[in-house]
Amino acid sequence: MTSRLHNSLCEAMLVVGLDQYTGLRPAQPQPRNAVKNIEVPFTQAYEPQVLAAISSNVAMFPQAPIKMDPYYPYSAGVTRYKSQQALKQPGQRPSRRISMGIMGSGHRTAGLDRSRRSTMRSRRMSVKPQELPISTEVINSLHAFCFPDYAYVHKRQRKDRVHYLVLTDVTGDRSYATCLTYYRQVLIEKEMVDNETEWKFADMEDKDIKEVQLTIGQFKVWLPVCCVMISSHPYLTVMKDCLSSLVQLIKQDHEEMNTFLKDYTRQLTMTPVPPAGMISINFSLYQLTINLHSSDHPDRNVIDIPLNIPFLSFTMENLLKIIACMLTQQRIVFMSTSYAILTIVMESFLNFIHPFEWQHPYVPILPSRLLELVDAPGTFLMGCHAEHRPDIEQVDGIVIVDIDSGQVEVSDSLYIPSLPSEPVSMFRTATQRIMPNFDLILINSTSCLSLEEVRLERRRLTEMFNRFVTASFMELMVNLFRDVLTNIKVIKADKRYFNKENFLESQLPGDTPFYEQVVNSDMFNKFLRDRMNDKRDSWVEFEEKTRPVARNSLQGVNDKSELIRPLLLKQRRSSSSCVSVADPTKLIYSTSGVTTIFHLPEFKNTDGFYERSCQEISIKLETSKLPSLRAPLLYLRGMLRVACGRPVEGLEDFYNLSANDTRLFPRQVIRKVLSVMSTVEKSKLTESEFYRKSALFRKIDDEASHIESIHIDIGGIPQTDIDFNEFYEAIQIVEIAADYDTIVRLFESLTLGKQDYVDPVTFEMLYECWKENEVQCREVHPPEGFLDPNECILKVSNMMKCDRGTGRLALTQKRLFFLQEGSKKFVEIIKLRDISSLEKIQQMSFLVGVEALRVYSKVSECPPFVACLKEERNCWCMLVTEMAAGKVIAEELRDPGIVQQAAQNVLLVDAVIRSGEENCCSHHTSVERAASYLCYFTRRKEDGVDKLPPDTKHVLQHRINPNVREVDKKAIEALLYTPGNKSGSSNESDSEIELGPKLWCAMGSGKVLVYDASTWLLQAKFTQAKGRVVCLVAVGENQIWAGSFDKTIYVIDIATVTSNQSLMEHTDMLSDITVSKDHRTAFSASLNGQILVWDTEKLQSMYQINLAVQCLSTIQWVDGNLWCGTKERIIVVTEAGGILKRLHCTDEAKYTLSIDCFLITPHKEVWTGCGRQGLITIWDQETFEEIRQSRVECRGISKMVLVQNKVWVGSKSGFIYIFNCSNHLLEQQLKAHNDSVRSMCTAQNRYIMSGAGSEDGKVAIWRASTA
Fold first, then answer.
1. How far apart are CA 719 and CA 483, in angstroms?
2. Region Disordered: start and end of each range (predicted)?
3. Do β-strands 1081-1086 and 1070-1075 pair in parallel, antiparallel, or remain unpaired?
């Protein structure tokens, strides 16, 4: 027995209207505009009913005497004829054709008495929840939406019409429906009952209605019949095609209507829809070819409507006004004389604002009888007929969108702010070249000679337009809300905060009203929580691909979260977050070059249909190598296998999705499948190999993996005493500091090391002084270009007198400058690197000594600068000294991040000193002592601990700190350099996107940090791994494979720095990965000796090699063999797993020495490094004879790399030793880190990168040419 297909195209098919069982029941009450003339049937409105409801497993007819077809769905040996006979009324006269009687000939109710007809008319659906996939509540209310203006009978035949519905159940889940109303001619006659005129269906005595001669009181009328197809997927146009085909058959033979209904429904409920990706499904429906295209991304619905209608209806100004109304959550009513256009336009706007999701009542078609809902309180999005405009205009506080006239009318009581100007300007420019009127495009084209050609051409134009418009609106949404990401702060692994105050202050003044309304909306809150939970949706991917270089052009800053005074920088780079690309479609529709079409087998009957479909998919999987195609095929086969009663095989297909595209992993479907599996099936599942290897299915019930996101307003000051942990959180929330060590020093400063808490008054004063200084600095406006891009004002003095006149002194990260009073003159006094010393003096003025600060310069021709700072002198002396010390140390250590740390210290020192002036603060009595805790670099400079040897300074170029903001520093476990290229992605359509060189840093925390290797600025973070990432390798030009201690290999896309594929077949922690020379084969090793051999194109393991070792730490692919390092020896293994030879390293006493690393040089030599002492041994690659031993003074050798005929050897003492590869002599010794060298890599023979252990936690970049 087959189960339900979880991704079926059709959920149910319904028929709504009037028939002999419902009779012509007048609607109560009648519409206000109805003409009350009971002598003719055409002036009254009638109440339609649900006549049929058919799903994959049940066929119900609620108005008929026999309500359910007992033989549906058909099984072997049960014919349609038996089904039809079973549903005939007992004692019913034979008719011209076999029929179940719904909407059949009028004779069948001619003899029914009034009480029986009344009972039949009031019937509602009464079904069990499992019988129909649509809720009973939705079905019982459907008639009102199928006939929004009631049902009328007509003298003449009306043209068939289509409209669309969006149905929302009590849980908020939406279903989509297409309604096709056609007209059928019937005979009715007048009947007097209790002195009242009623209309009933007349008995035609099996005559054709055209042959019937009318008698007095009889009328031939055209009766509306609405066929409804409901789906959980918005294939509105596809459903229109299906219903058009169905109605065409019904019109040809109306007596067989129910047979057609059941046949269509059965096929459409067994038709799967494709998952997201470049795949579509084709199937034949009664000689009509239907194409189901897929969504562009798993996080958004498929678009099957023409998005050009809003562009034809509205000016660009009004279109953007509607977007602003939706984003600010106004009460909006759309109007049109066409119900079909209402839903199409409203659905288009919901697509335009993606990823924002409308969280409030959404009724695209509001029936006349429910018009009072417009006056309900709260936010809503509704649509109604334009004839109701006079009534709607009486409601206050709403926005009326007239689709027919293209006008947008805003209530006088509302203020709708405009969208921010710069993103809008870019959007206008991007959409200037679109042509929404397809007829203008077709003028230059040749004529289509068949209906099918017309359909295909129209579909091609619609899809082309939809792609461009969708991408353009995505670009608009990214430009509007890109800055949200920079204001999400990670306090702890499970706590994240959004700084709303800072987000609003960072906007341009004219844009602030818009954002003030948006940030308080439910849609924004949902959007924000998705960002906090690191949701990987299309918005995030587009944002990453268009992330402007301008935002990362701040030289010397490793992370935008490190920026000091971001609001001040925002004033000079307000437009940097907005980017427009030439063709945004290439950033969205970029999975592969061509869409693959999968043709479903011919649907002859239900028997074996799923099996035949699975066989066709299996054939395609055998020939397909691309993960972008294998993933949707596995998804489809998994769904079909579950549907045909093979759940374990279906779950195995879902498991294999992880190696192709984890975004398609159907978590909800798997949960449903597991919940209904029998005991035998569950036993079979737990015994299966894939279930034992994967934790995915066990994780399904653990939804606690998402971060508990918190959306708060910044500014809340603690109301009670707080200990250090609470203080650490609070300081990060208000963004006074982020570095853990800095916050420790600030806590000691405020408590003077005497108490273990900070009182709320001290905290509040500290925060107020911090903000006060920020405001003062923001009021200073240097001329354009005076400050460098990453330079901002840290401190501005009070009015003072100096050698240059009267004015103010200002300090930045790089220099002191003077602001002359009464003019806009900004004069540089001295660069911080040129300060030789500071002297506190008493400057005589009118015979009175004034406290002054004298600044001496290293430049001989530059005289000392004297500033009479009065009571500010000591504070300024401390600030300038700390900033200058940080600048000097940063240049000494080649670590520009120290400049930002010193600037942070300066701001904290100033806040501590200013708050200490209040006697209510805990550090009031010892202000200078409290401030001295924060002068970290001043002390380090005085102690002289940051001096590098000349050789090291000459070779060292730069340092970066991947452990910024981390409470516990982590080791840099692996480093990898990838060169820049134009594609940078496996997607052909991304070929025009230039991606620069990158440095990948794998951390002991499981994160992988990616830096721009030209500016050394942080570009992205990969945070999906659940354990330490210990190895990185580039596979081809588009992928990085990251091996983790969680037994998983994450396949990371270089362009997006995301992993949609993961390989989970290892049974122990990953230790290393290597690839063959042609990159077609990869080898991954576990600590337990397991080596898996992978096909890198299919992402499938081909076989495995098992070595009987205790610790397999490293592997290398050399000349067709695997070289495996096991700490005790090196084992050379063939590709098939055969052991060729072993290499042991022993000391003079013949004791085995550990081998922590080895290197094979072009000179056919093997260099090995001992892990417990500074011993380097060189061997002949072929004979394994020892050539030479060299010793260095260190705790052990940890890493080796070869560049420019030199071997760079990293040690556990933090030193790097450079050997000549030809003569084996030590040429240079570099002081690299304060901890062991844990990782090394090279960059195109130009640079060497070294990563340190957790005590140091930094990466050093070295110039190979100067070594």
1. 30
2. 83-123
3. antiparallel
Which strand (E) or helix (H) includes residue 464? helix 451-481
In whole angstroms, give the CA distance from residue 63 to residue 1227. Answer: 96
Convert the pLDDT of each residue in 1142-1191 to its tens digit.
988 877 777 778 888 999 999 999 999 998 889 999 999 999 999 999 99
Condensed to tens digits (0 to 9), the pLDDT of residues 1033-1044 reads 999 888 999 999
Spatial separation of the C-alpha atoms in residues 71 and 1042, rounded to whole Å: 56
Question: How many angstroms separate the CA atoms of 215 and 184, rounded?
Answer: 20
CA distance 1035 to 1054: 10
SS3 848: strand
- β-strands 1206-1211, 1215-1220: how paired? antiparallel
What stretch of H or E contains 721? none
Nearest to 838 by CA among 819, 820, 811: 811
Backbone angles phi, psi at 14, to 5 degrees: -130, 155
> pTM higher than 0.90 for the full model?
no
Task: Reduce the secondary structure of 872-916 to three states and give it as a string.
Answer: HHHHHHHHHHHHHHHHHHHHHHCCCHHHHHHHHHHHHHHHHHHHH
DSSP 1060-1092: EEEE---SS-EEEEEE-TTSSEEEEEETTSEEE
**Ramachandran angles phi, psi of 173, nearest 5°:** -75, 140
Neighbouring C-beta atoms of residue 637, cutoff 10 Å? 26
As a whole number of angstroms, the distance between CA 23 and CA 38 comes to: 15
- Over the chain (1267 residues), the average pLDDT of each successive run of 10 is 81 91 79 61 85 91 84 61 46 35 38 42 48 76 89 89 90 90 88 73 74 80 93 95 93 87 93 92 90 90 93 94 96 95 96 94 92 89 94 93 95 93 91 75 71 78 88 93 86 75 88 94 92 87 70 40 49 53 59 75 84 92 83 93 92 85 86 87 86 64 43 63 90 85 93 90 93 89 85 92 89 92 84 93 78 91 90 94 94 91 94 93 92 94 88 93 85 93 46 73 93 88 88 92 93 85 90 93 94 90 90 92 90 91 80 87 92 90 91 93 94 95 93 95 92 94 85
Alpha helices in 917-1054 (DSSP H): 927-932, 936-943, 950-955
Note whether 1109 and 1085 are within 8 A (CB): no
Q: How far is CA 833 from CA 427, 815, 921, in A?
A: 45, 8, 35
**What does the alpha-carbon distance between residue 570 and residue 283 come to, in Å, rounded to a whole number?**
55
Nearest of 183, 181, 184 to residue 209 by alpha carbon: 184
pLDDT of residue 38: 58
Give CA–CA dist 777/570, Å, rounded. Answer: 13
Q: What's the confidence (pLDDT) of residue 86? A: 47
By CB neighbour count within 10 A (0-12 exposed, 13-18 middle, 19+ buried), where does 686 fall?
exposed
Q: Are 29 and 7 in contact (CB under 8 A)?
A: no
Q: Which residues contact 615 (CB under 8 A, 6 or more apart)?
A: none
Contacts of 90 (CB under 8 A, 6+ apart): none
- The length of the chain, given as a count of residues: 1267
CB environment 462-495: b (16+ within 10 A), e (fewer): bbebbbbbbbbbbbbbbbbbbbbebbbbbbeeeb
Q: What is the token pair recorded at 436?
A: 């929404």
